[in-house]
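Hi support team,

I've been running sequence recovery on a batch of backbones for a student project. Most finish fine, but this one hangs at about 90% for roughly twenty minutes before it completes. I'm not sure whether the input is malformed or the queue is just slow. I've pasted the structure tokens below so you can try to reproduce it. Let me know if you need the job ID as well.

Thanks,
M.K.
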């Protein structure tokens, strides 16, 4: 069996503010397949540890109509237009993700990041292109306040490992990709 390779340009069939749906013809040998994906700007998440506690944010999420405990983070590109422009250049996304992670640390978590390391990239799936870049913050300074965007309700909290386990079990930490990556981080670093 031959692998699929692109055969022609992408075609945007739907465009919203954050998401777009793209279809593209692919070939595997003499067979053709129309492939469709939903795509949005990648995001960042920060793993910040101090005194055996992790920095989480308690954030009101309109899609949940509830609070969710999360790792601090946000979008790499603020608009679909910026993301498309980046894609057209064919550049490496990692430097953009690092800059966005540093900005999100200040905005959401109230920390000035001095050093971070990429830990893992979580991929949503074959038909949804929405990668999340997870960074371990190695050096930071706590700031006196956050720089939240209009409408954001976010409260940073230092949480123990046992409290994090309880948040996950009780369903108060709802971003499943983050739960998986965070669990891996905690196991690898012998917190669990």
């Amino acid at each position: 069996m031959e692998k699929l390779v692109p055969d022609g340009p992408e075609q945007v069939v739907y465009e919203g503010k954050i998401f777009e749906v793209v279809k593209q013809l692919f070939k595997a040998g003499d067979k053709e397949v129309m492939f469709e994906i939903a795509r949005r700007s990648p995001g960042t998440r920060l793993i910040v540890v101090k005194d055996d506690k992790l920095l989480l944010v308690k954030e009101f999420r309109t899609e949940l109509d509830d609070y969710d405990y999360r790792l601090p983070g946000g979008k790499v590109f603020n608009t679909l237009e910026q993301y498309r422009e980046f894609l057209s250049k064919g550049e490496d996304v990692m430097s953009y993700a690092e800059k966005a992670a540093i900005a999100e640390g200040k905005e959401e978590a109230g920390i000035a990041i001095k050093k971070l390391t990429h830990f893992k990239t979580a991929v949503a799936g074959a038909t949804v292109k929405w990668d999340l870049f997870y960074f371990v913050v190695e050096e930071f300074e706590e700031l006196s306040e956050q720089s939240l965007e209009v409408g954001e309700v976010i409260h940073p909290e230092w949480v123990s490992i046992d409290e994090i386990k309880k948040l996950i079990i009780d369903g108060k930490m709802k971003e499943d990709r983050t739960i998986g990556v965070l669990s891996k981080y905690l196991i690898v670093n012998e917190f669990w």
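--
Follow-up from support: It reproduced on our side and the slowdown came from queue contention, not your input. The first helix runs from residue 80 to 89. No action needed from you.
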